[in-house]
Write a structure and sequence with these properties.
The chain is α+β, with helices and mostly antiparallel strands. The protein is about 45% helix and about 20% strand. The chain contains eight helices and 19 strands. It is found in: Secreted; Bacterial flagellum.
């Protein structure tokens, strides 16, 4: 029965009455929905804080590693001819690199050009690279024994050479090139049997380029390499030769401490900390002017997190030239943020870079001597752990959100039951009122008829 029909018998605006009574029953939803929005906003805010703490953990971790402090800059007087790269912990220094020979792979070409359709027949080629055992490449009568087929067989054999068919005005030849450079990769090619239909000399190879090492002098010391890189000559450095320099003279290569990278790592650390501090501060404050509270105003977890980080940032490290961040030019500002005095930090790094590193990265077993970055790495790791601050708080908020959803469902269920009950009651009332009205009309009609008859 449609709700809109209820009330016809009674003359009451039943739809309005039921709607108002159901609205009263649903009043608790307003508070629950406000709480739900607040809980979900808190979950979102904690997710943002967790992300910022993760970024800060990475920045702190970078300052605990040698690579965060041992950055070096490299300059070359002729980078197109020779240069260097840092591969590990390297010392500052100046180097002179004179290149007399560049490493190359052997290239050999078959002696007689033949038409592309020439068939060589079945046979076996033996390719021996350096001191390795020879690799036999066998072609049978069913194989493609043109130069293209032979090249394909060689490339499939993994013999240490790459085969290519080259074409000129006289026909085709087979070109073999060593897969790697260096004098020890020189190779020989022989035909141990077969190839009965091969033209004379078609599988006889002549070296057009010999395999050789790179030869150079580093600060007067003779050095050689099978490649164009010298990776093991100076600890932490790899020198690369690109051109012979005997005509132009030695290339000067300078390796120096790169304080710019160190400063960048420190600034990244400061920025990451400030981002956490700003978000937590704005989320927990009460704005007197607007009389509004932050999403996490009074939240003990957020305030405790901020205080723990601030305590480490403001602590000191024993046993080094610099005890606190302010000693190297990083000061705490009003509101708890950090600010870097670039000039003072430059001066500290120039005077005692090891001391600045110690302030951050000292891994001493003595807690009072541990570097600030080491302590912060441990603290943030604990916060971000599976059973740490964030997961515990998020789990609690998620549980509260679920309970809120259950309460909303209960309110909606009660309201729906009330609406159904009221509609049933008013429907029954309508039926009774309609019956009474009908009876009243009948009696009135009977009285009228009786009066007429009398």
């Amino acid at each position: 029965m449609a709700i809109s029909s209820i009330g016809l018998g009674s003359g009451l605006d039943v739809k309005s009455i039921v709607s108002q009574l159901v609205a009263i029953e649903k009043q608790p939803l307003t508070k629950l929905q406000t709480q739900e929005a607040s809980i979900q906003s808190q979950i979102s805010t904690y997710s943002q804080i967790k992300s910022l703490v993760s970024t800060f953990a990475d920045a702190a971790s970078a300052l605990t590693r040698d690579s965060g402090w041992n950055a070096m800059s490299i300059s070359s007087t002729d980078a197109a001819s020779a240069n260097a790269t840092v591969t590990g912990i390297a010392a500052a220094g100046s180097y002179s690199l004179e290149v007399s020979q560049l490493a190359q792979a052997q290239t050999s070409v078959s002696g007689v050009a033949v038409p592309a359709t020439t068939v060589f027949g079945a046979g076996t080629l033996a390719i021996k690279v350096g001191s390795k055992d020879a690799v036999n490449i066998t072609l049978t009568e069913g194989d493609n024994t043109t130069l293209a087929g032979i090249a394909s067989k060689i490339n499939d054999a993994g013999a240490g050479v790459v085969a290519t068919v080259v074409t000129d005005s006289t026909g085709q030849r087979l070109m073999l090139r060593g897969s790697t450079t260096g004098s020890e990769t020189a190779f020989t090619v022989s035909t141990s049997s077969g190839f009965a239909t091969a033209p004379a000399g078609a599988l006889g190879f002549t070296a057009t380029q010999n395999a050789q090492d790179t030869k150079a002098k580093l600060n007067g010391l003779d050095i050689t390499s099978a490649t164009r890189d010298f990776a093991d000559v100076v600890s932490g450095l790899k020198f690369t030769a690109s051109k012979v320099t005997t005509a132009t003279g030695p290339v000067g290569i300078t390796v120096a401490s790169d304080t710019a990278t160190t400063k960048k790592n420190i600034q990244t650390f400061v920025d990451a900390y400030n981002a956490i501090n700003d978000l937590v501060s704005s989320s927990t404050k009460y704005d007197v002017d607007s009389k509004t509270a932050g999403l996490l105003q009074g939240d003990a977890t957020a305030l405790n997190l901020q205080n723990m980080l601030r305590n480490v940032i403001g602590s000191s490290t024993a046993g080094g030239a610099f005890a606190t961040l302010s000693d190297i030019g990083i000061a705490v500002q009003r509101g708890g943020t950090l600010k870097v005095d670039s000039a003072k930090l430059d001066k500290s790094l120039a005077a005692d870079a090891a001391g600045v590193k110690n302030l951050f990265a000292n891994a001493s077993a003595d807690e009072s001597a541990k570097g600030l970055a080491v302590r912060l790495k441990a603290l943030t790791t604990q916060m971000l752990a599976f059973d740490g601050t964030f997961n515990s708080k998020t789990d609690a908020l998620t549980s509260a959100d679920k309970r809120n959803g259950v309460e909303q469902s209960k309110v909606n269920a009660r309201a729906a039951a009330l609406e159904k009950r009221l509609n049933a009651q008013y429907s029954a009332l309508d039926t009774q009122m309609a019956s009474l009205t009908s009876l009243n009309s009948y009696i009135a009609q009977q009285v009228t008829n009786w009066n007429k008859s009398s």
